[in-house]
Design goal:
Umud Fragment, subunit A; 8-stranded antiparallel beta sheet; 3 helices; about 25% helix; elongated
Length: about 180
């Protein structure tokens, strides 16, 4: 009689072990996804019109985070960021000024370090003037591509590197809009 019960006991242990392995694998997968989201890349949905025509409301994009862990943001990178006093809201903007740059807007033209910029990614020039501003050390000046409808550094001020969350790389949704973001 002992021989017939033994397989039943072993089967019970196997079920418990299988259950444990399944939970362990699920926890490892969840931790891996959290690490990817925290340090590697993350999908983000565009909300609003401030980056039109580069990005459209409702599009889903891939944002890489590792770019700025060891390197610095570059002028004209499209980035996700937080603004002071805005809580956890994520904004999408274009870096136009890096530390040491002078940035100004005169007659609808963006000037960086005394040179007028040709901005093929905007539909129409901003309807405001902005006096020359020197970008402070460790700070970045960001603007939306839809200058007439963008809350950005000309309103909220310069951003620290810690407020820049990631580099926008790719639009992935909707599928017919799949493209790299320059």
């Amino acid at each position: 009689m002992l021989e017939t019960n033994r397989p039943a006991v072993e089967a019970g242990v196997s079920k418990k072990r299988a259950s444990f392995l399944w939970i362990r694998d699920l926890l490892i997968s969840a931790a891996f996804l959290l690490l990817i989201g925290a340090f590697v890349m993350q999908p983000v949905r565009v909300k609003g019109e401030s980056m039109r025509n580069t990005l459209q409301n409702g599009e889903m994009m891939i944002v890489t985070k590792y770019d700025y862990l060891f390197g610095e943001p570059s002028r004209f990178d499209v980035v996700t960021c937080h603004f002071p006093g805005e809580g956890g809201t994520v904004f999408v903007k274009r870096i136009v000024g890096v530390p040491g740059d002078t940035v100004e807007i005169l007659s609808g033209t963006l000037w960086i370090n005394g040179e007028a910029m040709e901005e093929h990614y905007i539909d129409y020039p901003p309807n405001y003037m902005m006096p020359e501003t020197i970008v402070e050390p460790g700070k970045y000046f960001v603007l939306g591509d839809n200058r007439a409808s963008s809350k950005d550094s000309h309103i909220v001020g310069q951003l620290g590197k810690d407020q820049i969350l990631g580099h926008v790389r790719q639009v992935i949704w909707p599928l017919d809009a799949f493209r790299a973001v320059e």
